[in-house]
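Researcher: Re-running this chain for the archive, since the previous output was lost when a drive failed. Same request as before.
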Amino acid sequence: MPPPHNSYTKIRKLLRNLITQKLTLKIALKQVFKFILTV
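Model: Regenerated structure tokens:
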């Protein structure tokens, strides 16, 4: 059984990855929207 702080860091890493993915997704959607509006 791994120490609790290890699993905690793993969860934090996963959460950070999810947040960054959401941010990049938002940016990508904005870019696509701009592209659609200009075309």
